[in-house]
User: Fold these one by one.
Assistant:
Number 1:
Amino acid sequence: MGFVDKGKGGPFTEQGHTALTGKIPVNTSGGLKSKGHPVGATGVAQVVEIVEQLRGSAGKRQIENAKIGLTQNMGGSGASSVVHIFSNA
């Protein structure tokens, strides 16, 4: 996605920048490792998470003052990728 330079993602994450209170919160629901991968429904679950964040109804996962959300999902052999960007503005 280009949020950090190539090879810098690990340190960026270790420094807490992708945590719920970080600069760029990632996988606010815990991602596929916590939820599993219901094939065909993963993208829908991502969208639901972003909508809950933007509505302020994500409970303990809530990002304070969430204004923009992005989902990215790859399908099949990785030949297709879909990105959605949402805003509550």
Note: The longest strand covers residues 68-75.
Number 2:
Amino acid sequence: MRVALAGDHAGFALKERLRAHLASLGHEVLDLGAHDRSPSDYPDHAEAAARALLEGRVERAILVCGSGVGVAAAANKVPGILAGLCHDHYSAHQGVEHDAMNVLALGARVVGEALALEIAEAFLASRFDGEERHTRRVEKVRALEARFQGRAVRGESSS
């Protein structure tokens, strides 16, 4: 499978380990950075991976930051992306099978390396099951995305 892999400086070491592991399993990995431990911003990496997915250059994406929360939030702002923050095997495969998750977010400071590799494998091995109830729910998520696209959240300042 073609997989985009990206993460900020906090996720760099785990991203590198994931890259080597996934390649050893035969996956074609598109490494979108960070390429070292220099400070970088997780939204930039999430956007790069989301673009690769939406442009069809990859079939799935895995994002890594310190907690996983930032990359998941950023990726989910991109229409068409269904990112899930997973720190366990069950959520990684169930998120794909029932929720059509196409981006996995991991927290490098939260999950150990061995578990992260297992989670990534479960995510990539899973397929959306297409059951009517799951399809209906995913369609509702997509409808929410369409209804609220472009609306800003009130009450929070970005400065």
Note: Strands lie at 2-7, 28-31, 60-65, 83-85, 103-107.
Number 3:
Amino acid sequence: MKDLRFSDMGYVKSSGNSVKVDLFEVGSAVLNFEIDTLICVSNKGCLSKSSFNEEYLSSSYPDNILQNIFLAKPIFNRENIAINERGFEQNIGSIKYKVDDRGTYFKDSKKGILIKLKTLK
């Protein structure tokens, strides 16, 4: 995500369709954001989902894409979904999206976007 690059440890908390993400680098909190009706990023303020997508992801993405990724739900109205014994996969053009018991993986190779969430047990 442009201007939201991060690679270390974080926590995702969800309640219903609300998502709160706290990100840490070397044990210190560096960023948090919440997704509900708006997407609020600690150091950037709040944006509508479509405005967030336009600024950081892609204006062609559906409004709930980031929320669905963090909630491990299908994207793009379940387009090209393949259910398997561990979860599901979706391949939509340049997008590869996979959810299983190990975590969530979203990559749009055309737009250079990668979101990987690993499940800690």
Note: Residues 9-118 form one domain.
